[in-house]
Design goal:
This protein is of the alpha/beta class and about 550 residues long. It has helices spanning about 10-15, 30-35, 55-70, 85-90, 95-100, 125-130, 140-145, 170-175, 185-200, 210-220, 220-230, 235-245, 245-255, 260-265, 280-290, 295-320, 335-340, 370-380, 405-410, 430-440, 465-475, 525-535; strands at about 45-50, 80-85, 105-110, 155-160, 165, 360-365, 385-390, 415-420, 425, 450, 460-465, 485, 495-500, 510-515, 540-549. Helix content is about 40%, strand content about 15%. A hairpin with a 4-residue loop joins strand 4 and strand 5 (about 165).
Amino acid sequence: MALDEDSAFLLSLGASRTGHMRDVVGTIQADQDAIIRASSEGVVVVDGGPGTGKTVVGLHRAAYLLYADARLQGGRGDLLVVGPHRPYLNYIADVLPALGEEGVATCTLADLVPEGATAGEEPDPQIARLKNDARMASAVEPAVSLYEEPPTEPFDVATAWDEVRITPQDWADAFTAAPAGVPHNEARDDVWEALMEIVLDRHDQTDASEDEIRSAITGNLEFARTFSRAWPILDAADLVSDLWDVPAYLKRCAPWLTASERHALARPEGSAWTGADLPLLDAMRHRVGDPAEPGRRRHRESGLAAQRAYMDDLVDYLLATDDDPASGLQLLRRASIREDLVDEDAVATRGGDRLAGPFAHLVVDEAQELTDAQWQMLLRRCPSRSMTVVGDRAQARAGFTESWSQRLARVGVGRLRHATLTVNYRTPAEVMAEAEPVIRAVLPDASVPQSIRRSGRPVQHGNTKDLAAIVEGWLGEHAQGTACVIGAPGFASTPRVRSLAPDQVAGLEFDLVVLVDPERFGLGDPVAGAVERYVAMTRTTQHLVVLTS
């Protein structure tokens, strides 16, 4: 690309940054626009190095699809944008509303699971690897099925009028009434209703009404306790905790694990959750469902029954006081009109998880970091497999030696279209000249984009003791713009200067970036360290400073 140094496009790229991503629709380039307008069918992988506008493309594609794709119109929450961390979500917060789209849901992976709000890092790489293995999701079914075993002894259900025996086969037949794909807790009412029908069919009593018999069966505490033991209400977090706490339970549910691996996964009861636990917690919650859902359903049904009874009384009153044969009020007795009198939406259901999906389309940014188990969390929420996947293999801290096709095929995504962005619009050429050798030292085939502009300022090197003076000097020289200090936990953030860890800067950009002791990045992992340095260096739009002790 050949551009005049005074072009409006380049001048816009060099403008000072604020704390939020700008609306850059006026600077969208042809290669980016083609991706934005691509069909939503299947998966589109937007692959590109730092500064190529991947995030801009992903967000504008979200807005475009909401406007142009009929599947995504007519309701809130049909599209989900998944980012790598909370600073990223804060950074992009104004973009979609500026494009006219306020109904898009945004989150990080941790937001998908309630325990993610307090989950910390998993300190042991071996344990993280075991928990992030996609096979762990297959431990969910045997873990839950242990709590869906019908009694093997007959049971006599006694009422004031009769006594009905439920045989082991009756129990087994009732358990098959649970609809396929319905979470355990929600299916509980279906199993109970099947048992109720068995008792009603065999109940030899004509004097009592069905409602009276049902009430008597429900009030049989021994029967209710037996049923609760056979099909209890389950909590996903309790089951996952039991897997780590009870070696025999883990062996039964995950037989591929060796004895030493099971021992490594053991954790004391009450231990804090880590990020590596979240995929299994999500899979378990998807299978088990919300423990409060049966209560919410009964509350809703009770509310609807009360509303129907009220409407019936109201119709009776209207008809009793109507003295005009031609008024037409008799039509209120019609079943269709009678049902329309009840406003089902007015009966609050409470609860509900917006992020549980399903979503018609996902936009996943910094996707190169996702493990197989984390991909399962997302695919669970997008049965259509319609996604925009944004990432850069060279920016994967855990390494990314496969192709995108290989990685996604392994997690169950077959169809994809691959688009590559090769022009670096953000990072000055002076910075890329020093950043490129950093990543190529560990990933020789990394796709490093070509910068199209220069800042006129070489990378500055210095000592960590000069950190405060450098930041203060920059603030004094620049009335606008933002800076970021990366790798100095004790440095306090201000409205114009952020202080972030190396793993919290992906997807962000700043006018000034100061790296503090970058050789310490990556916690001793050479690949992770090089990737974190490369990502951190390429966050700047103007000037980079590297400080060492």
